Amino acid sequence: MTSILEQLKDSVSNALVAAFGAEMADKDPLVAPTNNPKFGDYQSNLALSLAKPLKQNPRAIAQSIIDNLEIDDMCETPTIAGPGFINFMLKSDYVGSLLQKIQPDERLGIERVESADKVIVDFSSPNIAKEMHVGHLRSTIIGDAIARILEFRGYDVLRLNHVGDWGTQFGMLIAYLREAYPEALTTADALDIGDLVSLYKKAKVRFDEDEEFKQTAREEVVKLQAGAEDSRRAWKLLCDQSRREFQVIYDLLDIKLEERGESFYNPFLADIVSELDEKGLLEKSEGAMCVFLDSFTNKEGDPLPLIVQKTDGGFNYATTDLAAIKYRIKEDKATRIIYVTDSGQANHFAGVFQVAKKAGILPESVETVHVPFGLVLGKDGKRLKTRSGVTVKLKDLLDEAINRAKNDLETRLKDEERKETPEFIDRVAQVVGLSAVKYADLSHNRTSDYTFDYDKMLDLKGNTAPYLLYAYVRPQGISRKGNIDFSKLDNKTNIVLAEKEELALAKHILQLEEIIKEVESTLLPNRICLYLFELSQKFNQFFEECNVLNAEEPQKTSRLILADLTARTIKLGLSLLGIEVLERM
């Protein structure tokens, strides 16, 4: 079903051409939802933008557009406000007819894209031999939400986990383990991830302080890159151990990823440098091979380089990222590549994209997008850390959210004198705890820092996951209390929207497609969060003011359908954020 917004845009465009000629066909109709219901449901300020080119009063232009509109089935007669805004108010019977159309559709009338282009979402990306920490939280949650939204729209999405599984650190770690814990390099699960992290830190100290050990570590890197059997076996054991630990987190958060680490691109790095050289882009600077970037300068105004080969002949992140772009375009056939990383990597990706375009690796037909995000802060306004000043482990953070949700639930059950099974309590606590963490992150504009606060994110009031989960539960309570199966409701029943609360709710349900399409473009999942929060508020107002089970027919069935559509919209919206619902709380 074409969204209401798109229908209005088409109607205004057609009216503009009818009023002022074919040369107006490419003009943006400038239709958008209104911020204030007193101005109607949608508004266009097109007439104001045409005042100068048409040399007419904008109110007169607005009237000419209205005179040529063919929207009598959709809207009340449009009105002109202020200097020339055109306001549109949807007819209640039209809104009801649209709800009736989407009721049988599991997608709630939201169409798929016509062409299933290949989109790659690169997210999460932890490092081998290190535990996932709070810094990986945002990339993992935001990347998953973006992937889910694009998959729902019908794109062919490849979810890539570009793990840090290559480089000097592995030579350092393998060299240290050969001395301190040789069985770890020959036996699976000889170490857990905590031990591995501890040993990595000790190896780093040795590397920084002991020149002989540093040389040994570098020789291990050479052996690893050359494919020495024992070095490769040791490296694989370390990777497998870390990978299993990562999977515990991914399973808990219901995250699906295909791992393709830095090591995957290692065979292609020398060719990338050769290609840049052949294009005449390489310059030698202080022993390193570089491409100097346009518009990137240091404090002195000198151009900054993107280093692609270090003085020792080794390659770095930029070389790997260039190889990854080439592979993803040539082999994966991607038309859009999305990188979800922290804001601090913005310049790195801008430089990589620029060089890729200069080298002809990145054609105009492929879009590369860096999706930056801010920091997770503690209540003190600084990076979230433990009391001892250590970065918070992601597993500990998630477990704490679940435990707090469980304590809150047990307290509430005691106050309400409700009896529930331990299985019910554990299940609700896990869903609420994990949902609270995800939603608290996603509900903020990803470009901003946000304060991690368990009390706020677990609150049953406000723009939180528990509030939305409870809003979903309420219609299920109506179903249980009235012994009504929502799936058996008659979809031929006319939906009557007589009260202002039910009309406001119905209109909001129909905006979901517009919001999803907006997020598809902007990659800002917080817009879905805000939409769902407002939907929940409107449903609660409807629930308080409009009797459902005791209403007379056909109003009763109409309101039951409205309650069911609300629940299904909340469920669909939350699923796009990676959040599951509960039938009872």
Description of the molecule:
- Among the domains are: 4-90, Arginyl tRNA synthetase N-terminal domain (Gyrase A, domain 2), CATH 3.30.1360.70; 168-259, no CATH class; 380-585, Isoleucyl-tRNA Synthetase, Domain 1 (Orthogonal Bundle), CATH 1.10.730.
- The protein is 51% helix and 11% strand.
- It contains 20 helices and 14 strands.
- It has a five-stranded parallel beta sheet with strand order 7-6-5-11-12, with helices on both faces.
- Strand 5, helix 5 (137-153) and strand 6 form a beta-alpha-beta unit.
- Helix 6 (168-180) crosses helix 7 and helix 11 packs across helix 12 (346-358).
Quick structural summary:
This protein has helices at residues 4-20, 46-54, 58-67, 92-102, 137-153, 168-180, 193-209, 211-226, 229-253, 269-278, 317-330, 346-358, 394-416, 422-442, 454-457, 465-482, 500-509, 512-522, 526-545, 555-576; strands at residues 31-33, 42-44, 79-81, 85-88, 118-122, 156-161, 258-259, 283-285, 288-297, 303-309, 336-342, 367-373, 376-377, 450-451. The protein is an alpha/beta fold.
- Regions with pLDDT < 50 over 5+ consecutive residues? none
Mean pLDDT: 93
- Give the strand order of the largest sheet, numbering strands 1, 2, ... along the chain: 7-6-5-11-12
Helix content: 40-55%
Q: Please summarize the sheet with the most strands.
A: 5 strands, parallel
List the total number of helices: 20
Which percent band covers the strand fraction?
Answer: 5-15%
Oligomer: single chain
* Shape descriptor: globular
As a whole number of angstroms, the C-alpha radius of gyration is 29 Å
**CATH architecture term of the domain at 380-585:** Orthogonal Bundle
CATH class of the domain at 380-585: Mainly Alpha
CATH superfamily of the domain at 380-585: Isoleucyl-tRNA Synthetase, Domain 1
The tally of beta strands, per DSSP, is 14
Task: State the CATH topology of the domain at 380-585.
Answer: Isoleucyl-tRNA Synthetase, Domain 1
Strand-pairing-aware structural class: alpha/beta
> What distance separates the N and C termini?
34 Å
GO molecular function: arginine-tRNA ligase activity; ATP binding
Domain Arginyl tRNA synthetase N-terminal: 6-90
Subcellular location: Cytoplasm
Subunit structure: Monomer.
